[in-house]
Amino acid sequence: MTKRVYRFKEGNAEMKEILGGKGANLAEMTRLGLPVPDGFTISTEACMDYLNNGQAFTSELKKEIETYLEQLELSSGKSFDDPENIMLLSVRSGAKFSMPGMMDTVLNLGLNDENVKHLATITQDESFAYDCYRRLLQMFGDVVFGIDTSHFEGYLDFYKQKHSVLVDSDLTAEQLKEIVTEYKRIYLEIKKLEFPQDPREQLFAAVEAVFSSWNNERAKIYRQLHRIPDNLGTAVNIQLMVFGNSGNQSGTGVAFTRNPSTGENKLFGEYLINAQGEDVVAGIRTPLPIANLKEAMPEVYQQFVEMSELLEKHYRDMQDIEFTIENKKLYLLQTRNGKRTAHSAFKIAVDLVEEGLKTKEEGIMSLDPQSVNQLLHPVFVEEALKEADLVSKAGLPASPGSATGRICFDAATAKEWVDRGEKVVLVRQETSPEDIGGMVVSEAIVTSRGGMTSHAAVVARGMGTCCVAGCSELEIDEFLKVVKYPNGTLTEGDVISVDGTNGDIYVGHVELTLSEKNEYFEQIMAWSKEFARLEIRMNAETENDIKTGIAFDANGIGLARTEHMFFAPERLIEMRRFILSDSTLARKEALETILEYQIEDFKTIFSTTQEKAVVVRLLDPPLHEFVPSKQADVERVAKEMDIRYEVLQQRINELHEINPMLGHRGCRLAITYPELYLMQAEAIIRSAISLQREMKLDVNPEIMIPLVGMTGELTILKEKINQHIQHILEEEKATIAYTLGTMIELPRACLIADELVKDADFFSFGTNDLTQMTYGFSRDDAAKYINQYITDGILPVDPFQTIDEEGVGELIRIAVKKARTIKPKMKIGVCGELGGDPESIAFFDKLGLDYVSCSPYRVPVAYIAAAQSAIQSK
Ligand code: PEP
Ligand code: MG
């Protein structure tokens, strides 16, 4: 029989797969001799068995749990019905990868009408006992029976108002008993069910509910967002309760060993006196900073500081620790590597390397390459801020970055507005895991309650979304959809600007700019470059973009898309003249004008990149992309070209293609209109000659032909282009060392790579087209159904964003192998979007490609991903 249950003392930190992160770390802390309340963990496998077998709880599993329960009773000397030593349990989820707040928890499990009285006698605190009972009723009702917590919360608020009670802890025992009675009535009214009085029945039901919570909507969305596989399952941790809500010498809190927002090496956290764990996370009461504990309970504080230092050294990373104090005794309930902002992640990685706790390699491996995007987040323009009207400065800077958008008060509206193209800011009293769908799509999140570790703060930091939490000056009415602030009122749809780095909120749209880089970012980039084997190039053609990529140290340009140069109005008209005229002379003249423009374009590119490599891709899109489509535009162009509307419309109809991203484009344009590519090749060479003469700059252009699928295409075009270039070089008495290569964007090209390689100096995989052509998905509108495919599990991820290793990846593997069998040193790169995706970069690195090329802002992401891949393959 497979073992499904493990005592904490049987496990260790390496067992995350089976025990989940929380379970493995509870086991590890137990092993280290830290004060962890005893308990056991039901494995993730048990969860998957349960979910795969039609949610059936097997008698074997029940028996195994019973055995461990008995052991726990024996070693703790407690039991559910011992009037002197009553055992209460917490039941918590815990998957391999942490999914904060996404799955369910039940606390105080085991209480019933009978033993609650014993608890009151033992603790001599009746209100404490009944407070535990009403919490159990609420959590159990929500988690196990699916009774919305608003029924319980609503009644509690109503009761407190009616009896003029301000905070929960002021409720008397008699009042709590009345609340308990009402809560039990809610069970009957909503579910026609009694609250189970048998603690064992409660336990099994709670375990089942936690298993099932693996598949609740918010957990599924979270997994999709963080690419966590669906088949891992959650473990269930069953642990003796300790009570943070047992008076003023008790409390509960969460602390990070370093500041998760800034990375500062100083204990950072919050706690609440006389409270249970969920009170801190839910953000209903605003907690105190951990530093206050130093005065309130100096010994406990000192102990906590020592334990947190020990844990950080042991795990060699910043820890996020949950603790509870029961009558001045400290217990640790969880430790894990703390989630952090990109900014702090970089600082912490560098600091830990410098403190000798991590090697450089480990420092790099600890980072999520994508988090660089947060580091390069926009900030408000100083000048614009001076003009802006303040909504509030009272908020907590919960997750950095700046953003503007229109106010929405609920997740559904936020989603709906974003779907219709709006940018939104989600404004709520507090968020709960149900809001995840709205939080994902929002530019920023603002809450009026809750601290730095509230749900909103934790989730926003994880997503890299800017967030201001606990902004107590705001009176948010989610029902009436208004928010009052000291100087006015805002309603749904009003635009605000939110600064998650300092907590300020402004009325209206404040202009944004990109944030400065910092020393930690620079250090990580320097280390990454030491380790990366792949070269990183950029996809860019404008001076600005090229400068951005160079600032990030890109090794030149992997793709300059020349069609982007044709869209300025004065150029577009020449392009249209070339495409639409039937007079050879007019076409020739148009091309000559374009040639002049292109020479200037290439001069700009080459002089900006200086000696760095540049791949210029010759014209690629279908010609109809350059022609007008609306009647009024056609009429205007006809006028400009001095021809009849009907003639022009007729020519446009001829060019029309149903499936525009296939068809007459790429090198096929040059097979039918060779003069186009010859003009571009000429422009490239002439600009190189002129830079050689004017600036003594030696450029070695890499000329790239797109969408080749047959050897004949390449041989013919190569011959024509080479001849044309030779002719110019002879005429100019100049020497320019250029190379001529091809993109590999068609499955057929992959399969005949051993033939194509003979006529090409280099290959560059155009993975956008290769993915489109392999799947037969049109890249222009696949987004419409790809999400459905992912939801239904047909696709694991969007193959336009992350390489499909089995299909597209296999084609690339075949092509590389075939090409390198003929030319072992063939230069091969990637210039599709996948060139900036960390997982895909690892794949390309392992295939031994020479470079990846991506948009300039992804260059740093690519460097870190390339370094990580190289470190992993060491
Ligand atoms: C590609 O297809 O991957 C590519 C880089 O070219 P484009 O996106 O311009 O078609
Ligand atoms: Mg392409």
UniProtKB/TrEMBL annotation:
Domain of life of the native organism: Bacteria
Protein name in UniProt: Pyruvate, phosphate dikinase
Alphabetized GO MF terms: pyruvate, phosphate dikinase activity
Signal sequence bounds: none
PEP-utilising enzyme C-terminal domain location: 517-869
Reported cofactor(s): Mg(2+)
Gene coding for it: ppdK
Broad EC category: transferase
A Pfam short name: PEP-utilizers
EC number(s) on file: 2.7.9.1
